[in-house]
Amino acid sequence: MGRLERIVRLAALVLALMVLGQAEASAQAFMPAELIDLTPVRDPRDGTRGLRAELDIAAPIAVVWAVLVDCDRAAQHVPGMQSCKVLDQDSAGLWDIREHRVKLPWFPLVLRNVVRSDYEPLARLHYQKACPDGQRLDGEWRLTPVNGGAATHIVYVGYLTGVLPIPELILRAYVREGIKAVRTESLSRARLLTRPSLP
Fold first, then answer.
1. Domains of the chain in sequence order
2. Angle at which helices 168-194 and 3-27 pack, to 10 degrees?
């Protein structure tokens, strides 16, 4: 086991113990509506393990979509995101290639990922590593309008393997925080749209 891997495993263990120790104390801070269930899934093509979430956000689909595709302000609300930069894009807006620089709180280095996103506007966002290298970083967001268009139903499925030896507990926590950030930012933008303008 290399030195870097030992550091990663030790840091992940410490964070896992912190998360477990705070779980009971934090349980009272969340109302049922705030919970995001993550379900383990397997890709039927190759058996890769992933995570699935399903939730409703009280914001129109156009608002949620704008949050998902917003590279300029991603670092302001995506956990750990230090920067997002569009490297290439389709003139019709159906795909782009982005560079993400992410700093996880328990990992000493900034991670750089180059991701291709394919878009079905207001319906589906599929992302994957731009250059396959044996690691797997891909998934999708599916959006459906509900409640007469006043809210959005989201189904998220994501796969992350071979990048780092991340314990499942830590991965689940990171994914959950990312989905919560999308919900929080969508609700914030929706409130701005409905706020009455001053005369």
1. 3-26+35-194 (3.30.530.20)
2. 60
